[in-house]
């Protein structure tokens, strides 16, 4: 077997791929990389399929030793990567030899790094996907939704000859910032919220709460007035902004539960969700409206670019 | 839910609302309706087969279908029209199913052990409702439940409706650990926890079934539109059935 031996699991390191499709009606979450754009870039640098499994390294502290030789690519937030102690710039692919140690430190900018290997990590898929979803206990190294930890083995292909090292041109690099604006497509219970609530939403600042996770990004700010009445649970799509009784919005992300009953304002543009994935707790967040057609046009351009 | 028979005669009006760049929410009214699960299950199948080129996933719940589609292949206006047509063509056969003898074949009988050893809230439920433990068990095993939705966790089926006398709110403090198979009640709903998880429902018993297994086909014993009835079993039988389904003794 060839691959990487894990020396330190880090804060939260997960195997992710495009996610578990077609099981939400049974209550199974989709999963997938929170910053999908960075994950796709990592695979593209290696000419991998977009569905190849990558590592999502949150907040750093992760260290591996190569047990074989292969090409790897690193994208996303800059987590002060070193190889055998030498600092490395992200957003490029490079050759790794047997015995090389890759170490991700604390974030320099951004919050989540993506590590891809040639051909993708070859862990055992569950329900058609390798994506790790802790709350569903599915995917990951052992198939039961666990994060990567010390002593794990991450299998991948062994390459006989070195590939071409590539770098992403500066102008394509996504903006990573701790002050972002999320475009919101009004929907769901949009008419249940008052005009005043909408005005407040467009004008106020929120902070990303430290309780945020892959299920939902929790925001903190002046409480939004919540519509009266009970709502029956309904399917929750990516980026849904729900407002629970405390008036603090939660943006539902890739590990969201398939159903939810809190009133929802609408959904954020997924491209902005990727920026949100690079925000650390305390980041400043604002909202701005966008029409569905404009949002779909932006997504079309993005998907076409990655050949999805 | 409305109790009057006239509420069951007509299909609630269909409305659409956006749910992001690639999902559309079809909504049939806003109240629990025992005729809807069957209708939604049928409509879901039709959408998945007739619109398979543009629709990727359909998630049913109480009064809604969340339709995930490929926005590069269909305009929202055309999709809404196609979905309206399919919905209009789906029969609204609203005889209350519990009175329909032909439907009894799809009734799933589920054993539940109501022994205190696996029903930690039985006493609290008794105090809150004023019912004896025997009455509580009778009340819970009496109705035929509808599967209104699956969600919260893989294989977690929202069942309704719990008879009025047994309806009590969620726990003030959710438990951090509810063992797999636990049967909970909350308001008009009851459900079996498919796996160990946190949970805020009052626990009334425990089922020895496996409610979610990614290795088996089907992965869950129930789907939206199915019907369930619980029946009581003794603790010894529960242990034996649990070992049979799980290959080990219950926790």
From TrEMBL, chain A:
Metal-binding among keywords: no
Keyword terms of this UniProt record: ATP-binding, Hydrolase, Nucleotide-binding
Keyword Nucleotide-binding: yes
Pfam hit, one: CT_A_B
Gene3D superfamilies: Cyclophilin-like (2.40.100.10)
Carboxyltransferase domain segment(s): 25-305
Single GO MF descriptor: hydrolase activity
Domain of life per record: Bacteria
Coiled-coil intervals, chain numbering: none
Cross-referenced NCBIfam families: urea_amlyse_rel
Protein's name in the database: Allophanate hydrolase
UniProtKB/TrEMBL annotation, chain B:
Record bears the keyword Membrane: no
Coiled coil: none
Official protein name in the record: Carboxyltransferase domain-containing protein
Organism: Aliidiomarina sanyensis
Gene3D superfamilies, A to Z: 3.30.1360.40, Cyclophilin-like
Keywords from the named record: ATP-binding, Hydrolase, Nucleotide-binding
Keyword rRNA-binding: no
Pfam families: CT_C_D (PF02682)
GO terms assigned for molecular function: ATP binding; hydrolase activity
Residue stretches making up the Carboxyltransferase domain: 14-222
């Amino acid at each position: 077997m060839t691959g990487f031996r894990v020396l330190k699991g880090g804060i939260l390191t997960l195997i992710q791929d495009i996610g578990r499709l077609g099981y939400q009606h049974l209550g199974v979450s989709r999963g997938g990389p929170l910053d999908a754009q960075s994950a796709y870039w990592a695979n593209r640098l290696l000419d991998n399929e977009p569905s190849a499994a990558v590592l999502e390294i949150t907040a750093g502290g992760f260290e591996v030793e190569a047990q074989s030789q292969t090409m790897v690519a690193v994208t996303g937030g800059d987590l002060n990567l070193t190889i055998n102690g030498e600092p490395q710039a992200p957003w490029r692919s490079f050759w790794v030899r047997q015995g090389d140690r890759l170490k991700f430190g604390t974030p320099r900018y951004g919050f989540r790094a993506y590590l891809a290997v040639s051909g993708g990590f070859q862990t055992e898929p569950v329900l058609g996907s390798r994506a790790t979803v802790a709350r569903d206990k599915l995917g990951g190294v052992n198939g039961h939704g666990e994060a990567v930890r010390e002593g794990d083995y991450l299998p991948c292909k062994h390459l006989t000859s070195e590939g071409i090292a590539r770098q992403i041109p500066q102008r394509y690099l996504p903006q990573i910032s701790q002050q972002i604006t999320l475009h919101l497509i009004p929907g769901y219970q949009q008419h249940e919220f008052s005009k005043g609530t909408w005005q407040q939403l467009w004008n106020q600042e929120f902070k990303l709460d430290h309780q945020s996770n892959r299920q939902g990004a929790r925001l903190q700010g002046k409480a939004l007035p919540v519509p009266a009445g009970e709502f029956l649970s309904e399917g929750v799509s990516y980026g849904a902004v729900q407002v629970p009784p405390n008036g603090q919005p939660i943006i539902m992300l890739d590990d969201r539960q398939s159903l939810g009953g809190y009133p929802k304002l609408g959904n954020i543009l997924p491209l902005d969700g990727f920026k949100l994935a690079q925000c650390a707790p305390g980041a400043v967040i604002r909202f701005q409206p966008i029409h569905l057609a404009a949002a779909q046009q932006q997504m079309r351009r993005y998907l076409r670019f990655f050949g999805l | 839910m409305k109790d009057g028979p006239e509420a069951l005669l007509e299909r609630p009006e269909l409305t659409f609302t956006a749910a992001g760049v690639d999902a559309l929410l079809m909504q049939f009214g806003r109240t629990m309706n025992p005729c809807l699960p069957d209708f939604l299950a049928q409509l879901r199948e039709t959408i998945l087969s007739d619109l398979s080129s543009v629709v990727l996933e359909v998630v049913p719940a109480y009064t809604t279908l969340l339709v995930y589609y490929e926005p590069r292949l269909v305009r929202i206006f055309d999709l809404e029209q196609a979905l309206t047509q399919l919905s209009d063509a789906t029969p609204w056969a609203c005889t209350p199913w519990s009175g329909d003898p032909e439907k009894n074949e799809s009734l799933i009988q589920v054993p539940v052990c109501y022994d205190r050893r696996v029903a930690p809230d039985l006493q609290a439920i008794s105090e809150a409702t004023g019912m004896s433990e025997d009455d509580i068990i009778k009340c819970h095993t009496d109705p035929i439940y509808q599967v209104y939705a699956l969600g919260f966790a893989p294989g977690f089926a929202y069942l309704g409706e719990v008879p009025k006398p047994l309806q009590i709110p969620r726990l003030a403090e959710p438990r951090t650990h509810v063992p797999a198979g636990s049967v909970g009640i909350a308001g008009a709903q009851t459900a079996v926890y498919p796996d160990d998880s946190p949970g805020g429902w009052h626990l009334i018993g425990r089922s020895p079934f496996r409610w979610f297994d990614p290795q088996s086909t089907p992965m869950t014993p129930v789907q939206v539109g199915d019907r369930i009835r619980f029946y009581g079993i003794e603790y010894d039988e529960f242990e034996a059935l649990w070992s049979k389904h799980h290959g080990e003794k219950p926790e």
